Amino acid sequence: MSAETKSKPKVLGYLPDDRPPIGATLSLGFQQVLTMFPATVLVAALTKFDVGVTLLASGLGTIIALLVSKRKIPMYYGSSFSYIAVVITAMSLYASDCFNDPATFYCPDGVRLVQVGILGTAVVEILVGLLIMKIGKAALDKVLPPIVTGSVAVVIGIALAYEAIKMAAGAAVGGSVETASVHWLVAALTLIATVLFSVYLRGKGLLGMLPILLGAIFGYLVAIPFGLVNFDLIAQADWVRVPAITLPAFDDPRAWGMVVSIALIAIATIPESTAHLYQMSLYIDELANKLGREPFKIKELIGLNLVADGADDLVVGMLGGCAGTNYGENNSLMAITRNYSVPVLMTAGAMAILLGFVGKLAALVNTIPVAVTGGLAIYLFGVIGMQGIALIQSEKVDLFKPAQLGVGAVILVLGVGGAIGLPNGLFPFEIPGVFPNGIPAIVFSAIVGILVNLIFVIFKPQE
Predict the structure, then answer these.
(1) How far apart are CA 383 and CA 215, in angstroms?
(2) What is the spatial distance between Cα 102 and Cα 99, in angstroms, rounded to a whole number?
(3) Is 110 helix (H, G, I), strand (E, B) or coil?
(4) 389, 408 in Cβ contact below 8 A?
(5) DSSP β-ladder status, 324-326 and 426-427
(6) 73 contacts 283 by C-beta, under 8 angstroms
(7) How far apart are CA 54 and CA 49, in angstroms?
(8) pLDDT tens digits, one per residue of 236-267
(9) Inter-residue contact 441 to 395 (CB < 8 Å)
(10) pTM of this structure
(11) What residue spans of 229-341 are helical by DSSP H?
(12) CA 229, CA 188: separation in Å to the nearest integer?
């Protein structure tokens, strides 16, 4: 054996088609569950979805998506923050009791309406995926360029700003703002801790992947001495419970407005999902090269990836879980551990399904004070908006061009201004059967932005 061979370090890692030993499969799978858990259950808590169903749907949706992608694309699916704004708006409008009382943790009437919209998102993602497989991504980029998708992402985050402030104040979403200093103190400490965890623990292994969980735990502990945590909920909960699965409200005419409202949010999530695919492709092929194996080139599977996204939302929409997306946090964990094994992800999905039946766990999540979720929300909603800006930057959008400026400006002002300034965040343009009370600001801004951009696609301005 040559000195060169002796000195060459052994590369450890698992590619998508690898099946690690059972011990490694279980431990790596549990890490995936631990990584997705904080954000997934927080979305459920913010939008009044059942935590058990959300975990169940996350696990089952992940398994189905992996099978749809022919076990080629290693992704874990959890709840998406991008849909929170339109879900809260829709549920506040059509099921107002959902957000009037901070003690309400689950609102089945609102969930059933939103489920129809989530299924609409699934259809959009699948159709776009099939379209890309047919005509390629370049044609789609003309209709949904980065200035549109990035600006919509900014609106999705910033339009939620006032709701985050109300939660930080301890008020119910849609209710009046309380000025109790204890709520503000708990929210502020939660916010500061979460930001510090996200900055100073970055790159520190698994802990670096869990700033939201650590921030929530810190805020929870701070809230206990102030009497903001109701432990009776945990004591009263059963250890094992059947998740509160609900069927979509297909028979309710109000639900069909949800299809347009919620499905349009895919404008922001499709580029996010595609970016995740590109990143994963780089990491996987780098490991394959080090292991002396053929590259997987999953970046060429953009269309199939979106079809898998849609398959996940079909599962979520039918069960009553939060709208999903493939998780960047889990992708980063895979890069850190060099584990891209699909069997590991399927094991993680099975673990999430089992967690959905743990009643005490759902009750524990429901004891998180509104002020704590408010502190987390200030950070998370702001991050969504900043990610929109990051998308515009990364795609090198030329903001010195009047056409780009015009599209972005229209989307931002209509979306943010309408969501915060108009009654119920609705533009007063009624569409019978779809938007009988007006068009939600986020939806209206996206539609107008797409139409303005199409003018420039058809009638190209001079450079």
Answers:
(1) 15
(2) 7
(3) helix
(4) no
(5) unpaired
(6) no
(7) 7
(8) 999 999 999 999 999 988 888 888 888 888 88
(9) no
(10) 0.84
(11) 232-236, 255-263, 266-290, 302-319, 328-337
(12) 17
